[in-house]
Amino acid sequence: MKRFLHLVALSVAVAAIAVTMPNLPASVQAQSRPILLSQNVNFTPPNVTAPGNRQGGTHRGVIRDCPTALCITPLVPMSNIGLTLAESPTFFVYVPQTSAQIEFTLLTENEDEVVYETAFTIDKPGIVGVSIPAADKTKSIEVGKRYVWSFSMIRDPQDRSADLVVKGWVQRIEPQPNIKSSLATSDPMSRLNVYATNGIWYETIATLAQMRRQAPNDSRLTAEWTKLLQSQGLEAVATEPLVKSL
Question: Which of 27, 84, 148, 205 has the fewest Cβ atoms surrounding its Cβ within 10 A?
Answer without folding.
Answer: 27
